[in-house]
C-alpha cells in the first residue's frame, strides 16, 4: 500500500479511497492538515459592516458559529458565520456602544454574553440574544485585553494602560472595587486565564515582558519569562488549549514559544524580513492540536 503522506491525502477522492482501505479513525484530521499545508490560495470573503478600522474579533466557543467584531467606529457587531460567508447577510449591532475605539472582545463559555473594552476606559457586558447592555465596568485608563474565567462566567480579567490587571465579578456592584492582581508603572497589553489551571494567568507588559501569575498570590509574579532578557516590551500572550505552552509577541523581536514552567524560550519564530515595531499586535494558537501559530501585525 502506498504511503499515506502522498499527494492522495490532499485530494477528496484520494482521502475517501484510503479511508475505505485503512479505516483509520484519525485520517480526517490528517486530511484537513494536509489540505491546509498544500493550499496555494485559501478561501476568503470580505465581511463589510464597520465604518472604520477593525481592532478586535473573537469567535464563539464550541465551533465558532458566531463572530463578534469591534473597532474604531465604536460599535460591536455580531456575525452568524455561515450566513455571512454564503449569503449577503448583514451583522447585528449590539445596542451598547463605546465612546471611543474598541480594542478587545470576549465571549463567555455559553456564548450568551459578550464583553467589550477599549479606549473609553470601560468594559461593557452585552446580552447576545436581546442585544441589550447588562452592565458597565469603569476603569481609569484604556482597556487593552479581556479574558473570561474558564470555570466561572461571572469572573473576568482586564488589562489596562494604567498598569493594572484587575479581576472582576459581574455579580458584584459595578461601582465596587475589583481585585487587583498586578500593578506596574507600565501598561499591560494582554491577559489570559490558563484554560486548565484557572488560578494561573499570563500577562504581557510594555516594559516588564511576559509574566505568569497566581490569583492566590497577587502583586508578585510567579515567573518572568525570557531569562536574562525578561525586561522586554511584550504586546500579546496566549495559552494553548491544554495550558502547557505560551505564545508571546515582543517588540522588535520574533514571536516566541515558552513551556509553562520554563523561563527560557523553547522556540523563536524568526523569518527573513519579519519586523514588528510600531503598533499593537496579537498572536494565537490554531489547529485541532494547536500545531499552528499565528501573529498579526500592521506594517
TrEMBL record:
Cross-referenced SUPFAM superfamilies: WD40 repeat-like (SSF50978)
GO CC field: Cul4-RING E3 ubiquitin ligase complex; cytoplasm
Entry keywords, A to Z: Repeat, WD repeat
Cited Pfam families: WD40
Source organism superkingdom: Eukaryota
UniProt-listed PROSITE patterns: WD_REPEATS_2 (PS50082), WD_REPEATS_REGION (PS50294)
WD repeats: 47-89, 136-171
Stretches that traverse the bilayer: none
Record keyword Aminoacyl-tRNA synthetase present: no
Record's protein name: DDB1 and CUL4 associated factor 5
The organism of origin for this protein: Nothobranchius furzeri (Turquoise killifish)
